[in-house]
């Protein structure tokens, strides 16, 4: 089990001389989930004043991201090379995170001065003022005992000549990119006031081959597309994966036994098992937010209904819907008390909400067209879905069905999944005629849309939570 | 073996043996290919159908050849209703299935690409079931017919236009050799 360690006593250590932290082994504790600003808080009085209600204000901030310095250029067990090369790679990951998501106006590390190790905590502010940088990110990387990598990250306000926040992480070599994502998360959170999301993973379906003989494989990657890995061979079609909240398992649909059936894939053991032995086709798997329950939809005699079963295995499935037609999918509210799902019981696909025990089912979508694949935001304030009006478009609405608005306008965009902080939505886009699929993302303004880099065609993204 | 209990069409014993042999050989085949090579050697039968070069009677190849397209029925957008053309096709299928009462079949339900993936899986299942129910209403034993949905994952027409979509909204009956 790989672990990322947050350096809890980081602030104290770095208040001394640079030499001090080379000799004292910092006490380490696991990071608490979702810290808005890990590490000792910076001076709050002098903190940056930004308005987060209007995205455009903070998105115009110019941030200089410099190559992370090292005390000694020594080999590492990472695939990035020595500590000096790793320092450069770390800053590139940070810059790419912020840049690719349309956040801020990051520059560097290319074309920027490289701070010395001793300058990491004492930036040369006049240099950065002259370059018209609003914000400055500096950092360091050191090779520790047992191959562990220690990374420090600092955010400065150039105009105020002040440190806003800092963080430090100790990671095994294979996880070095996570330290960069943690740094980007820290910067993003401090400047936007939003929760972090970069240190997270995505499960999806990798697609290759012609439209009528397309191979569909289960695959995973980091939120930035790195550490890509196929989990199935492609001999059986795989569809609609969902990461468990703790990233230990993936629910997905496979045609392994001929019928579409839901399996739970264990990432530690690389084994899988049927979630329910029904003898009927099962589809559309979902986790509850606490990981204790699994929703699946089962067809019987042409009818499809939603069932709930314990994720621990065993137990009798509980049928949650029982109406003529197709009721399918389901996405829990963040507190686990409600489930939003789609049903054509009224004649065509519409969005419904029910209590998590199946009671109090009520339709919430009343705006024309068909509405499908609802996903409740991790913040609870919005429901993303596919609006089918000839074309398929990604849209959001309030949990009561009001405030519907489209985020995309293409030929075929479907199956939204939320970023862990509920600010960004990924979906897949199918090209007309060719049928090639690709994963895209869009923020809630609808303005920042981009295609994710995947090795081959890609569909059914499922974004997991931010990692602890 | 059910085939021996329904000697409706009195044929030569060798035909029965051939069917039994084909069943045994293909017990593990999950899906029959659309076309099979013709069987070598003449079939000794009083039935008018197969010529010397025709497919083996009772095989999937024979089914495809005899259906002349009626192995597939088509649906309206988002619909699973069986219209008169579908009824005619299914009646033809039922006749064949009753002629070869030991044969089993899988009905594959499909949807066009304009719906969402998960819903189309359920819709394909609903269409396959509609076809199955109609065959059952014509006297085919329900236990002989399986259904499987491929949703929009296996289009047969590759365009993104009305004509292609119409071809893809289908249920295909495939007999199991």
TrEMBL record, chain A:
InterPro entries: 6-blade_b-propeller_TolB-like (IPR011042), Tol-Pal_TolB (IPR014167), TolB_N (IPR007195), WD40 (IPR011659)
Main location: periplasm
Key words, A-Z: Cell cycle, Cell division, Periplasm, Signal
Reported function: Part of the Tol-Pal system, which plays a role in outer membrane invagination during cell division and is important for maintaining outer membrane integrity.
The family this protein is said to belong to: Belongs to the TolB family.
NCBIfam families per UniProt: propeller_TolB (TIGR02800)
Protein name as it appears in the record: Tol-Pal system protein TolB
